[in-house]
Design a protein that fits this description.
By secondary structure, the protein is mainly β. The chain contains one helix and four strands. It has a two-stranded antiparallel sheet with strand order 1-2. The protein is rod-shaped and about 85 Å long.
Length: about 70
């Protein structure tokens, strides 16, 4: 979010506006790593997102039961 600030006799903040249109997903737990970082000068952002898709797709996991029995065939 960003807020414009005008000065005069008093500092007047504007309305907050989103800086980026991105979808970051996190479990929200304590110790969750950040998906972004800000450069020391505050002028650039590095944001980890999925390429192309905005939704998270879970990987497919295949479970093979009784696999030793399959080796004897």
């Amino acid at each position: 979010m960003s807020v414009s600030v005008s000065s005069g006799t008093a500092i007047q903040p504007g309305m907050p506006e989103p800086m980026f249109d991105i979808n970051l997903t996190t479990d929200g737990g304590i110790g969750t790593p950040s998906h972004f970082d800000v450069s020391p000068d505050g002028k650039r952002f590095l944001i980890a997102t999925s390429a192309g898709e905005t939704s998270v797709i879970s990987p497919v996991i295949h479970i093979v039961l009784n696999w030793p029995g399959l080796l004897q065939r």
